[in-house]
Write a structure and sequence with these properties.
alpha/beta; D-Maltodextrin-Binding Protein, domain 2; 13 strands; five-stranded mixed sheet
Length: 275
């Protein structure tokens, strides 16, 4: 009887020990199979939450958790702090600028899509209607502001210095025949500001959010342009995690023919796959 009791006690102790180990994470792999990604709502979170991505991850036992952010700073903060495994909202020029300003070591591990920036009508319905002193709104961050200026140059509104390129600023304008006033604004606010502007140059994600259709834009960046190659939206992780299993699984799930087909059908040209 004593041996039976002793055996029962030992079994109970062993069960409790195993339970404690599991509770501390030593014996559980469920958390290890969760990939947390910070993303802008549109189109990034929409793409991540698609069946095309989630089903691909689920086939290998991964669960995806998407945390949405409205701004362009907190996703990088969350990634740096380890609150998420990766983020998906930015292009490399913005990432490089962020790393320089903040002393961080975030790296791009894969390009996913490109969002053609567009010029949308405000009080004027065409470039030909522009009059002396009209105002055109552009994003106030350096990278997207340069894109906007290059797009305006491509459509004959202004002319920039020959070497301005993707670092162009208003100081690089050398010709402005209609004395257009360039108005730098927070990118997210430009759609709502269109009634006060002649034209607005708007990032695709904010245009989509404001229900502006890409086919209604007066002009867009060409898919084979320098901007298209430069401003591909990328998956970003901490440098130490660039070769992790989670990173590899996430990239593999995003760069598939199924995801490409989803992007084409869901966004009708406002978002273009670049893989």
């Amino acid at each position: 009887m004593k041996n039976i009791k002793r055996t029962g006690i030992l079994a109970l102790v062993l069960a409790l020990a195993l339970g404690a180990l599991t509770a501390c994470g030593g014996g559980s792999s469920s958390e290890d199979k969760v990939i947390k990604v910070a993303a802008s709502p549109t189109p990034h979170a929409v793409i991540l939450n698609s069946d095309a991505v989630k089903n691909a991850l689920a086939e290998d036992g991964w669960t995806l958790e998407v945390q949405e952010f409205e701004d362009y700073v907190q996703p990088n903060v969350a990634t740096t702090d380890g609150d998420v495994d990766a983020n998906y909202f930015q292009h490399v020029p913005y990432l490089d600028e962020y790393n320089t300003q903040n002393g961080t070591n975030l790296v791009s591990v894969a390009g996913v899509h490109y969002e053609p920036m567009g010029v949308y009508a405000g009080t004027k319905k065409s470039f030909d209607e522009l009059a002396d002193g009209d105002k055109i709104g552009i994003p106030n961050d350096a990278t997207n502001g340069a894109r906007a200026l290059l797009l305006l140059q491509d459509n004959g509104v202004i002319k920039l210095k020959d070497d301005a390129g993707v670092t162009a600023t208003e100081k690089d304008i050398v010709e402005n025949p209609k004395n257009i006033t360039i108005v730098p604004l927070e990118a997210a606010t430009i759609p709502a500001t269109l009634p006060d502007l002649a034209l607005g140059v708007i990032n695709a994600n904010y245009a989509i959010g404001a229900e502006l259709k890409i086919e209604e834009a007066l002009a867009t960046e060409a898919v084979d342009s320098l901007a298209a190659d430069t401003y591909v939206n990328v998956i970003v992780v901490n440098e130490e995690n660039k070769d992790s299993e989670k990173t590899k699984a996430l990239v593999a799930a995003l760069q598939t023919d199924e995801v490409k087909a989803f992007i084409e059908s869901e966004f009708n040209g406002a978002v273009v796959a670049k893989f």
